[in-house]
Amino acid sequence: MKTVRHLLLGAIAAALPFPAFAQMAPAIEEPVTIRFYNYNLASAGLGREGTLEMLGTFAEANPLINVEGVPVPSSEVMSRVQADVIAGQGPDIAQIIFADLGYLVENFGVPALDDIAPAEELDEHLSGMFPRGIELARVDGDLYGLAYVFSTPVLFYNADLFIEAGLDPDQPPRTWEDVSAAAIAIHEATGNPGLLTGIFGPSAYDWLYQGFLRSNGGRVMSEDRGTMMFAEPEAVEALATLRAIAQAGAMPLVPSSSAIEAMSSGNAGMYLQTSAVQGALLRGAEGNFDLRAAPMPTFGDQQATPTNSGSALVIMTQDPVRQRAAWELMQHLTSDYGYTVITSQIGYVPLRQNAVTSEEYLAPFLRANPVVQPNIDQLDSLVPWVPLPGPSYRQILTVMMNASEQAVFGADDNIETILADAQSRAQSLVPR
Amino acid sequence: MSETTMPFPRRAGLLSAILRQPLAPWLYLAPALVALAVWIYGPLGYALWLSFHEWNMLPFAPIRSVGTLNYERLIDLPEMAQALRNTLWYLLGLLPLTVALPVAAAILTQDLAPRWRNLYRGLIFVPLIIAPVAAAAVWRWLLDPGFGLVNMAIQALGFYPVRFLQSPDLAIWTIVWITGWKLIGFSTLIVSASLANINPALIEAARLDGATEWQVTRRIRLPLLSPVIFLLVLLTILLGAQWSFTYIHVLTQGGPLGSSNNIYYLLWQFGFGSLAAGWASAAGILLFAGFGVVAAGLLWLMNRVTFHDN
User: Fold this and answer.
1) How would you write the pLDDT of chain A (432 residues) with one tens digit per residue?
2) For a disulfide at A225, which of A389, B199, B214, B295, Cβ 3.0-4.6 Å?
3) Which ipTM did the prediction report?
């Protein structure tokens, strides 16, 4: 099957603007420099240090490969990659957010990993990873990258504020009704915000929003990605729940950067956000207050369906030698060692079973930091973050998220109308 | 036969008339004309063309003609009305900071001893040389409701902390203040230079005639400053909302709930999110046309109301 596809690819290669995908070079023999776009590098205190450490150990082990790490904020990765590719200066390997992956693969002639990497090397590397993680970087049946930093939504909470408000910190809220009650109690007892979320905000995309709606049986769009559905009754009901908490004064509208600061300085009761912020929160909490974590809340008896946030590593270069260099880097970053750094220092989910259970890697850290566990447990109920459709996917996102934020925090109570109006505008941007 | 032979000599006459034109002036003008064509009118025409197409700028992606769809989508944005209203507030809010305050500062410091004058003006000028993104970051820390210095001072006085950047009612004014604070120095510099150019004989003559300081300011300095004051008004109206772009981007991203969004930021959000060349070009053409009309009106007004000392 594979050879047939290779033959076909070779036959049509002349007709395509992309070069045919040959396999990468077997080894690196001369010094080579590769450019690596990475968004963790752009956020000091939220991943830069851990990423630099991994690049440092890689440089020691691979003296011939010089990795030029380019920090690019997560919200700008795609436009930066696109601008640089247009200018003929694209990255050799990039950390691409899952929401952008479809667009990247459909438009940039990215080589599929199972075309360029030697099959036995690829199989060996993938064998230790959680299958669910691998699937996330598959587009239309082909593997285009490796899931890299990856997180799930977690309800962080401040146990000290729970006690102050007369709540039991050993019984964290399970449902949104519990969350609402706890948030209002904390706000009334302490004056602090009861609940903050990372659902809205410029760098939130719609990853948490998708999971939030799906927990109530709603969807952002239909399964074929052709019909927008965020104004359906389930979605309206879910947003109304949030609106009620906001109206009670227990959930102020706070931008994501301030929300992290508020939570890590002990000034907020609960914070629903990616586990990626866990490192920053733990540093703030140490010796200050008791930080704990619970799984994403459910709507009544329905199962919560957390979506993953995060990104994949994608090799973009067409040059066989650079591909080899990028592949070596990719394996290093997603090794047992890599996930040990990623989980313990940055706060993402470890995607390798061995890294989780091995005493050499994460087992001691996980024992010392039970706050990480809900994040790993949620891997079973995870649903993938589905990219919005078409070339105007960013505009669809902006329309949808602006309206939803307005529905929760705005002055207008008629949130059905706000959402229905936005949905029809978003629908007009979906390719027919 | 004369009818058929007539055109020939006439055409030769036209040709020789063109050839007899001196070539030198055109050669002298050529670099400027070519630069204008290549850097201004060419891209403008290209943007106009792109604004009727859908393309994400990838060399191998197809360019699709979509008629006026890009314009319709932009004008239909419900955020548009709010952003236009906010743009007006930005301009009105900036005018006191970029015109009134600098004129006052320049006039008040004009008659000080040179050393003090330079010190004051230097202090006023300092914000301008701070990099905008760094300034924005510092302001964010200063204004933070939890630990910002400004809010600590407010709390020390017994008030509740003010959510300068998080409250939909305040965010826009906070951004106006930061933008204006950065520009006061620039405007003061321009007004000072213009003040120094006023012929001292006029002021001395007025003082000899017993004019008070206020009369000197009102009757001599302000009228002679009128061209530069109008220039500052013009700059603020045409560029003020643009100057706030960095601060909006770093501090609020147009939020909360679009309350600090202006027309530039809104069009940037929709036009450049995924390098949608069609949206972005349509946005650019709309801005070009809109502010072109405003600029023409202001220039006309400027020629009528300002006073020049010959």
Assistant:
1) 444 444 444 444 334 444 445 788 888 889 999 999 999 998 877 788 999 999 999 999 999 999 999 999 887 888 889 889 888 888 999 999 888 888 888 888 899 998 999 999 999 999 988 887 888 888 778 899 998 988 888 899 999 999 999 999 999 999 999 999 999 999 999 988 999 999 988 778 888 999 999 999 999 998 888 899 999 999 999 999 999 999 999 999 887 778 888 899 898 999 999 887 887 888 889 889 999 999 899 998 888 888 888 899 999 999 999 999 999 999 999 999 999 999 888 778 888 888 888 899 999 998 888 877 777 887 777 777 888 888 788 889 988 998 999 999 988 889 999 999 999 999 988 887
2) A389
3) 0.73
Identify whether B187 is part of a domain.
yes
The range of the structural domain enclosing residue B126 comes to: 70-305
Residue in A with minimal Cα distance to B268: A395
> Considering only CB atoms, which chain B residues are within 8 Å of A402?
79, 258
CATH 3.40.190.10 is right for the domain spanning A19-150+309-380:
yes
Residue B7 placed within a domain = no
- Helix spans in chain B (H): 2-5, 7-20, 24-35, 42-50, 69-76, 79-95, 101-110, 114-129, 132-143, 149-156, 171-196, 200-208, 213-216, 222-243, 245-247, 263-272, 277-305
Query: Is beta strand A32-38 parallel, antiparallel or unpaired with respect to A93-97?
Result: parallel
Judged by a CB distance cut-off of 8 A, whether residue A18 touches chain B is yes
Phi, psi of A263, rounded to the nearest 5 degrees: -70, -45
Q: In 3D, which of A202, A208, A337, A334 has the Cα closest to residue A256?
A: A202
| Chain-chain contact of A262 with B255 (C-beta, under 8 angstroms) | no
User: Which chain A residue lies closest to B257 (C-alpha atoms)?
Assistant: A406
CATH of the domain at B178: 1.10.3720.10
| Alpha-carbon gap, residue A113 to B263, rounded angstroms | 43
Q: Is B242 among the domain residues?
A: yes
CATH class, range A153-307+388-427: alpha beta
Please count the structural domains in chain B: 1
Nearest to B146 among A255, A265, A425 (CB): A265
Residues of A in contact with B59 (CB under 8 A): 17, 86
Q: Where, residue-wise, is CATH 3.40.190.10 in chain A? A: 19-150+309-380, 153-307+388-427
Asked if the Cβ–Cβ distance from B252 to A425 is below 8 Å, we say: no
Among A78, A201, A254, the residue with its CB nearest the CB of B274 is A78
Q: What is the pTM of this model?
A: 0.78
User: Is A103's Cβ below 8 Å from some Cβ in B?
Assistant: yes
Kindly state whether residue B231 falls inside one of the protein's structural domains: yes
**Rounded CA separation A94/A146 (Å):** 11
Q: Any CB–CB contact under 8 A between A398 and chain B? A: yes
